[in-house]
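Please think about what follows:
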Amino acid sequence: MATSLEAVPEGRTTLVKSREEAFEALFKSEYARVAGIANRVLADPHEAEDVAQEVFINFHRLHSASAAFAPAWLHRAAAH
């Protein structure tokens, strides 16, 4: 997930970087569980990986990775 920091106004670079770092940490800590939940529902590991990616993309668009409800939201979305 590459982002261009050149397009960010000066002073906001740190905020963008920390937001991306928070999302990366959330992804690393929850991806296996999200993919596992999707795999149990779908019984297809390749489809489960696609669903897991969609779940994270949707979460990233809608919420902050530092939200306390992040893991629960991801797990519920993967199950549905």
User: Anything to note?
Assistant: The chain has three helices and no strands. The radius of gyration is 14 Å.
